[in-house]
Structure formats: C-alpha cells, structure tokens
Amino acid sequence: MKNKMEKVKAWIKLISTPEVGNAKAIRLAETLGEPKNFVGSAGEALQDIDFISESIKENISLDSEPKDWQKITELIEKFQIKFISILDDNYPPLLRNIFDPPPFLFYRGSLSKDDFRRTLAIVGTRKASNYGKLMTKRIGGKLVGSGFTIVSGLAYGIDTLAHLSALESGGRTFAVMGTGVDTIYPPRNRELAERIIENGALISEFIPGKEAEKWNFPIRNRIISGISLGSLIIEGTKKSGALLTAKFAMDQNRDVFALPGDINREQAEGPNYLIKLGAKIVGSANDILEEYDLVLDKIEKPFPRLTEKEERIYQILINNKPETHFDSLVVETGLSVGEISTILLSLELKDVVKKMPGNKIVPLY
Q1: What pLDDT digit, counting tens, does each position of 237-263 carry?
Q2: What DSSP string describes 299-321?
Q3: CATH number of 308-363
C-alpha cells in the first residue's frame, strides 16, 4: 500500500507542477521511469533533460506534498480506488495511441488487457426517445453476446441504457467519468455505478475528490472514444456531447457508427449529420459486427420506421408493459376506435405489436 501511494503521490505532484501538462509528464516518465524516482529528489536525474525549463526542474525537485494529499489518500482507501499509469502493462493499449492520452487513470472495479481487445462506445442524448432506448438495449445486448465490453459515460438517457444493456446481458461495461471515481454523477445513478464496479469499472483521469464541473465532461469524451474500437451514436443534436465523442473518434482514426432517425426529430440531427460525413449506418448489431468480421447466429431485423401516430401508440404500449387494453388506448389518446384499429394493424404488419385475447395489445420489443 505504501509503495502504491508513493507512486500515486509522485504522479499527482508531477502533473500538478506548473507548465508540465500531460505531454511533458508522459515524456519525462518515458525517459526517466516512474516519477517517484525523480519527483521531489535532488534533481540530478533532471539535469540532462532539455525539453523542460530550469524553473520546471526546480519545482519538480521540491520535496512537497500535492494539494489536498491527505484527503486524496483517505478517499483512495475509503473507496478502494486503484491506479494505473501509462507505464503499466494494463493501461488501455488503444488509449496510448491517441493525441493527449491521460498519464494515469484512477478506477474502481477491475481492468484487464482482455477487456480492451473488443470494446465499443455507445453514447447519446440524455433525452432519449423510446426508439432510441429500445435500439440501445437491443444493440448493446447483442454486442455483449459477441464478446464486446460496452463503454459509456454514466449520464442519464442513452449512456445509462448502454451500461444496462451490458449488465442485463451478463457482460462487462466501463463508465468513463467527468469527476473523481469517488463522486457519482449524476447522483441518481449510484446504484448503477455499484453494479458497474461489480462487472467492469468506473474510470477517470481526475484525481479523487474532483467534483462535477461542466468542462470536465467534454475532456473525458476523448477517453470514451480512445479506449474503444468504435463509437455508436444513438440520438443527439449536432452540438451534443455525443457528437463531440464522435469527433474525437474520427480524429483518433476509430470507427464511427450512427443510428439514423426521423429527420423531423431534433434527437436525430446529430446521427444523421454523422452519416453525411461518412459514419456507418446502423440498423442492427450485425452492421457493427460485420466491421470486425463477426456475425450473430441469428440475423436480426432492424427496427421499422414508425409514423408519428404509430410512435405515439407504441410509446404508450412500452410505458404500460406488459400489456395494454384497447379501450385504454382510446381513452389515453383521444383517437377514434377506427383510427386506433388502423394504427394497430399497421404496427402488427411491422411486427412491432401483437394482439392478445381479451382485446389486449403487447409490444414485441
């Protein structure tokens, strides 16, 4: 434990040194080895280093503790937080190769090299439609069945469902956070976070104790895409965080997938824009799997397009699972019996719903 804390302390001290930053910290570590071997020492090891200034060398050599070090150590012990640096074998291999990789990561749960052989990010809007929710769970579950680890950001909406799709399918998932791993944000996802710790990991480049700040989340998106072979964008506007993740993925030369949507819906604006830029259209998990020479045993049909009224009826059915009486649809929608009968017939033909005895309707997805 003492050696671990010395390692953590040295890395934090190094990255906190004025004018150092990620790139110089990594270069120093790759040149001189573990920071604990030269941070806070007399400075002999730094004498021949020509890519940092004399003032940086002087500050690195100071024998001082990082800010709030006592609090950090307490949080690490309390939450059983683990630590890996870019020098460690189990640092995510894909992440090493991005522009501006984090020098280190804190995590709760477990990480192994095998986890990163087949990873895919699923991200999207916090205000997901039922269509987006459904497709997230369907695609995520199928990917897990083919050995993928699902990566997302623990936010409301699509991110939450992406993690759940993995957990409910018996798979593993990583949540990359915009806070320290001791701080669950949003707080409502605490229970989900505990499940992720048991079946994956909460991951963050931020030091324990770091609270949620809006500029942290765009920064962490480069890690979501950076540890993933590809990123699937399910709903979001052109200015959403999900689109920023897609941009990082493109810059990192990773695969970008997008779920197409109704051009009249704001949530579909982002994915449709990505498709114009060359993202692969995804209607089912097989569209992703074939990119990696994988196939499902059973070819799944893509979810059909619904009209506005069909979507309205379908959402009512989903929200009232497992079944809804025909008369309830009449009351809730205000539509006529004839209109609802016509809409239900269309939904049946699209294999989205099924009529049951007793004039009850069941959604099939």
Answers
A1: 998 999 999 999 999 999 999 999 888
A2: PPPPPPP--HHHHHHHHHHHHTT
A3: 1.10.10.10
